[in-house]
From TrEMBL:
Major location (coarse): membrane
Keyword presence, Cell inner membrane: no
Enzyme class: transferase
EC number(s) stated in the UniProt entry for this protein: 2.3.1.275
Membrane-crossing segments per the record: 6-31, 52-71, 83-103, 115-136, 156-180
Source species taxonomy: Bacteria, Pseudomonadati, Pseudomonadota, Alphaproteobacteria, Caulobacterales
Protein's UniProt name: Glycerol-3-phosphate acyltransferase
Family: Belongs to the PlsY family.
Reactions accelerated catalytically: an acyl phosphate + sn-glycerol 3-phosphate = a 1-acyl-sn-glycero-3-phosphate + phosphate
Subcellular location: Cell membrane
Pfam families referenced in this protein's UniProt entry, alphabetically: G3P_acyltransf
Length: 200
């Protein structure tokens, strides 16, 4: 029952579309009509409002971190959090972000939410995966490629740090979702049509 509560609660928390809510509050219209139509921070940046994009990035990461923390503490105990339950909640938050019921299951790509789960649930893994994202972005100048490389490496890094089997499984699940949500980017990368970081 604890796992079911964590999964449902994480999904609902993750499905809050902060990108859409913040852009509307800022008077920027419907984010789904801007750029790629994605609800994440990268597309918010295309509105020209870096502050709103940053807020979206932080909140998208925070909703996974919050789901993991709440599930771990309240379905475990404050002194001995149940991290396995927390990992399930964080992974479910990413699922909710990418496939929110409120938006006909058409959401974001999950990168910020992915890092939110890693940094709170297994911070050494999160730091290394984040460093790999930065190194790939600096070298190749593709945001999508950075997400693909770092998310693919995350489960392997989790194994190296002896994260629990459920934690590794949750990380692998999240990596697969990130790859599924980047399938159009993968096609553009293969064709050489993916825009570099900084290009419109």
């Amino acid at each position: 029952m604890d796992y079911l509560i964590a999964i449902l609660g994480g999904y609902l928390l993750g499905s809050i579309p902060f990108g859409i809510l913040l852009t509307r509050l800022a008077g920027l219209g419907d984010l789904r009509q801007v750029g790629s139509g994605n609800i994440g921070a990268t597309n918010v940046l295309r509105t020209g409002r870096k502050d709103v994009a940053l807020a979206t990035l932080i909140l998208d990461a925070a909703k996974a971190a919050t789901a993991l923390t709440l599930a771990g503490h309240y379905l475990g105990s404050p002194s001995n959090p149940n991290l396995d339950v927390g990992f399930c909640a964080g992974a479910s938050a990413l699922l909710g972000h990418c496939f929110p019921i409120w938006l006909k299951f058409c959401g974001g790509k999950g990168v910020a939410t992915f890092f939110g789960t890693l940094l709170i649930g297994m911070w050494p893994v999160g730091v290394l995966v984040g460093g790999l994202w930065l190194a790939t972005a600096y070298t190749f100048r593709y945001s999508s490629l950075s997400a693909l490389v770092s998310s693919a490496a995350a489960p392997l890094i989790a194994v190296v740090f002896h994260i629990s089997p459920i934690g590794v499984g949750a990380t692998l699940f999240m990596s697969l979702i990130v790859w599924i949500r980047h399938r159009e980017n993968i096609a553009r990368l293969i064709k050489g049509e993916e825009p570099h970081i900084g290009k419109h």
